[in-house]
Amino acid sequence: MIALGYKASAEQFGPRQLLDFAEAAERNGFDSVAVSDHFQPFRHTGGHAPAALPWLGALAVRTERVRIGTSVTTPTMRFHPSLVAQAFATIACLAPDRVFLGVGSGESMNEVPALDIDWPGFKERLDRLTEAIQLIRELWSSERVSFAGSYYRTRNATIYDLPDHPPPILVAAAGPRAARRVGEIADGFITTSGKPRELYVDSLLPALEEGARGAGRDPDQLEKLLEVKVSYDRDRQRAVDECRFWAPLALPAEAKQGVDDPVELERLADDPSVHAESRFIVTGDPQELADRVGEYVEMGFRHLVFHSPSPDQERFLRTFAAEALPVLRERFG
What we know:
Elements: E1 3-8, H1 15-27, E2 32-35, H2 52-62, E3 67-70, H3 81-94, E4 99-103, H4 108-115, H5 122-141, E5 145-148, E6 153-157, E7 169-172, H6 176-185, E8 188-192, H7 197-214, E9 223-232, H8 236-241, H9 253-256, H10 262-269, E10 281-283, H11 286-299, E11 303-307, H12 313-332
């Protein structure tokens, strides 16, 4: 069965408003709420960056049904893995069997300004993430954990409040090396829509399967979560215009490389040559949306989290729930 979720865009809205939107997503029939975790947003003007961990605690007690989690947090630099393990154990106690921990190797704009560090290379970041996940799992399953890794250490550490079942750990990957590691160690895989089809079918998903099988695991048992970027409105021009806030997403990777200042990222993204809508499915037709989304479902993504750029999220939630969710559920189960 397919799961249809809502992306709580912490880069665009403040904490209380975002909480209201997430509650509205549950009322309107969405299955999950995933929140981003940024120390700084992609855009300085009008940007937001509420802390995801306390926000999820509030969401846990203000909802009853939806699954909730991060997409994604970085348990390696700003947060020590022990803190992440403790925080998510608490959140999972507040919302039993509804929590997932989505993690990634990080972005410089979230870690460098907060810590004034040199940004590590990809290999170190991936190795840190692997070690952090190992430590988190040990803290969730054992008492008095003394851990001596290459990057993290604990001494007789105990998390005293644990849920009956630990949250699944989903790991984000945008390239084959990371996707292979996801297959080796994670409970699930997170990535985003809007990139060339070949990246998914020829690179990411084969690497995920290779990693899982190499580790003696069944790749079909891994949850596959896709953030689907969709600007949904019958007024196509409005749908296009509403993507502008998220223009930084449309910058080529080389333009963003090493940029950790939202002011500079905003300046780059406001260049007229940057077409923000290129990363979004822009439509107001639920059948067209289902056709576009169907390409990803065929690839094996069964947990779809919809990210709308609309400044009027209440309107998006009502309209999308009334028009698109029934079509998607009928088409994909």
